[in-house]
Amino acid sequence: MTAKHPSHAPQQKRMERMPSVLGRVQLSESEVRRRIKAGRFPKPVKLGPRAIGFVSAEIDAWLDSLTHGGAV
Question: Is residue 10 part of a domain?
């Protein structure tokens, strides 16, 4: 008897800290923060009292939107 695995297994969410995100998107931190405030960049998730992170899949989707005619 073989176990069936769904073809669309849920992807594990991965968090990225700001330095990693800045390296991927090639924007300054102040520009990223401006775009977050304007609603044009994925919002960070609070990880602790002084720590934020970004959902990696949301950053991927934002980058994809740039290459598919999305708003910057």
Answer: no
